Amino acid sequence: MMNSESANSKVNSTTPAAGLGSIQEWLPHRYPFLLVDRVLEFRPGEYIHALKMVSGLDPYLQGHFPGNPVMPGVLIVEAMAQASGILGRLTFPDRKNSCLLTEIGETRFRRQVVPGDVLELHITVEKQRKDFFWFNGTAKVSGELAASCVFTAKLS
Fold this sequence. Notes:
The protein is an alpha+beta fold and 156 residues long.
């Protein structure tokens, strides 16, 4: 288990959730490609719980699919990857570089994600070696599994 006193001082299970301002400090992504709206809880080197509010105004829903908008599965996986990037930055707050996705596997989609849904992102660190992290991610809507995957990222 890794520990980071400075990361814990910003957000943890006993302080208010982190919103857009903090997320933009931790991730280089910006609208329309920022897919994490709020961090609810985390423990450096272990897990993060975050949210993505899916809106009918999200630009990718205009063409996927007209009259029947569905969040693309690849963007659900990207939302999980962005949450893991936040966890990487909170685990190592002195590093200001990127957390880059290197592998995706065992991906399953179980439920459509549509406008009005709140995507609950649950990411756990399975192992870490040097700059590489192996994650297990799930995305849920109202507690129902929407997607899951395992993936690897490199903190550069």
